Amino acid sequence: MTAKLLNILTGINRPSVSSSGGMILVNDLYGAMPEIHTTFLGREPVDQAWKAAFDHLITLSTTKRPHGPDFDPYVDELTHEVGALIEKIQPNAIHAQYLGFALSLAFTRTAGNIPIIAIAHGPDVMVAERNASEREAMKEVAAASAAIVAPTVALANRIDCLTGRRFTDRLTVIPWGIPLSEARVRDQLPIGSRPLSLVHAGRLDDNKSTITAVEALALTDQPHHLTVIGKGPLREHLEQRAVELGLRGRVHFEPFLHRAELWRRLPKFDAWVFTTRGLEAFGLVLIEAQAHGLPVVYSDLPGVREILGGAGVAYTPGDPRSLAVALDEMGRNFRRREALTTAALDNARRYDITTTGRQLRELTLRVTS
Fold first, then answer.
1. Which structural domains are found in the chain, ordered by start?
2. Percent helix, strand, coil in the chain (nearest 5)?
3. Residue scoring higher pLDDT (1 or 173)
4. How many Å apart are CA 111 and CA 292, to the nearest integer?
5. Nearest to 60 by CA among 41, 76, 40, 35
6. What is the C-alpha separation between 156 and 174, in angstroms, rounded?
7. For the CA atoms of 110, 111, 112, 117, what is the dihedral angle to 10 degrees?
8. Model pTM score
9. Could you read off the pLDDT of 238-281 as tens digits, one per residue?
10. Cα first-last separation, the chain
């Protein structure tokens, strides 16, 4: 018996390139979901290799005005454009990425009888926690949705709280995943007590708290080396702080790397350092690191603890001293590193993107029936 072909409309109101975890995830997800036809709404420029996961990619023409007094007129214009597209495409279901953001509001106001599945990514929850108008927008999208997907129980609980616990029965947890078959592990671990070659990658901003890793290196007993990969508003400050702490030879900064290049380099490191101190929706980079056999030292946040379980070393978020102690213990104890590598690989196997795609398709079938 042939499976039902689902016609799904989705999109992210950004340039259609691998510029963030959300964009990478969505590209992986719809490429891995079976028996679907996906139309993606995005922005110029479009990475032609990236768009291959979608059957049809449409670039939005409404001028983007995401902040300030022009936001409401902007949403009205975007709603008009999206409404015409929905009328033309006639999807079976809409996947609204990012609760409360402009494109999700446009979907909500034009969907009619087409069921919506709202998908939370993390930044949408962060802005709703800080801003009352964003919170109201999240509630509007939640109220119009047949289901609300979050990647962890911790994030689902925060959404439940922000929406006044009015939509608890619509919340469902579907963990994110990565294309595990593409990950490679180093042949042999370096043995003995030794300084570690550490890596940290991501956006260099206040919430990611890369400064915790830099300052921790100044407190370690062993001369560990840290490679920081990424870009963001705090890049210059981090470089200056490393110099102030006398770490010029031990902290190395590199620009943003596309995932294929990052994955190629991961097996060359000894461990991954994860430093986010506030909200983290899921932390796909943690699973990417584990899938390549890297032990993870992570800030002890609820959502992160949920996905890693015992397959990592926790430290107090934002506390360089706590991180320094964890790094030195790992550097001294080869058997511990070896056990963490095994645990990392075992844990990563739980998060294959094909499983994420299958679960989201099954949910979509339920709401469309």
1. 6-177+352-368 (3.40.50.2000), 180-348 (3.40.50.2000)
2. 45, 20, 35
3. 173
4. 42
5. 41
6. 10
7. -150
8. 0.92
9. 999 999 999 999 999 999 998 999 999 999 999 999 999 987 88
10. 18
